[in-house]
Structure formats: C-alpha cells, structure tokens
Design goal:
This protein is of the alpha+beta class.
Length: about 170
C-alpha cells in the first residue's frame, strides 16, 4: 500500500443506504439482515443527509413500545450533523479523527455532498497494518506518521450536511 494512501483508496464503496422516507421498522429489518450497526441516509440525488445508527433505532423502538406509539420515518431519527471526510483525506488525518472523535465510521463525500463511500475504523486499521507489514519486511526502521500524509493537508472538520473540504 503506497504511503500516500487516501480515504478513496480504502473506503467501502458498496453501501447499504437508507432513504429519509424509509420507516424505522424497515430500516431496522435492513440493519439486522445485513448485520450492520448503522447506515447512511441519502436523498434522491445521492446527497448524504444523515446517518441512522442502531442506537437511534433501539431508543426509538423502546419509546414506541412503552408509549404504544407508531414508529417514525428515518428522517425523524437520523443524525443530521455529520462529520464527513473527502476522498483525498490521508491516513494520518483519518487516524487522528478516529482516535479523537471516537466515531465508528466516517462517510466520504464529494465536493457536492454526494456519498462516495464510507470508512470504518477497521478499514483504517487494515490499511495501517498493511503499511507496517511492508515496512517490517523491508526492515526499514520505525514508521513515522509523517511518512503517511502530506504535511499541507488540513484536518477534517464537522460540516453538518455539507461536505468537508480541507481549508487552506
């Protein structure tokens, strides 16, 4: 794996996505069937508008059961203020975000906010592991984190529903 590996290189591109109009019960059925803990929510143009987590679903289903109220749609429960990264985000920035923000996954969006893919902590761990294996096999000494990023890169930032772009 090259030293200049980016989010685009390691992200998962085939995602199980939800629509804001999907019922929570249908969303839960999909999460259970696919054995995933959350899913991005996109509008008709593919723009990321939210994330629905299993915690969102558990809380809502418990509330519905206790109050005998009908389940809502995904749009009513999803998290709308989303931390996103661009496809050019480096491994060092991803490592920083995952270690300081404690997210399980990060959506990768283009400049227009369209969902391109998603990165999990495991995706990052796999990429770093591969880099370390190559470095160890070459017996090339310690891996400095500066070797896996461009020093001009700005860190990712919270952007609400807008895509994140590095600031200059």
């Amino acid at each position: 794996m090259p030293q200049n590996t980016t989010a685009a290189d390691i992200m998962t591109k085939k995602l199980h996505k939800l629509s804001p109009q999907t019922s929570v019960m249908d969303a839960v059925a999909m999460l259970l069937k696919q054995k995933i803990s959350g899913a991005p929510v996109v509008d008709g143009t593919g723009t990321l508008v939210g994330i629905l987590s299993e915690l969102d679903c558990v809380n809502h289903i418990c509330h519905c059961a206790m109050t005998n109220s009908p389940p809502l749609d995904v749009a009513d429960l999803m998290t709308k203020d989303i931390y996103t990264v661009g496809p050019e985000t480096t491994l060092l920035t991803l490592a920083h975000v995952f270690s300081t923000k404690r997210y399980r996954r990060l959506p990768v969006v283009d400049g227009n906010g369209r969902l391109l893919g998603q990165l999990s902590r495991r995706d990052l761990m796999r990429a770093l592991f591969e880099i370390m294996k190559v470095r160890q096999s070459k017996n090339s000494g310690p891996l400095y984190l500066s070797a896996i990023y461009d020093s001009d890169e700005a860190p990712a930032h919270i952007s609400g529903n807008a895509p994140s772009t590095p600031s200059t």
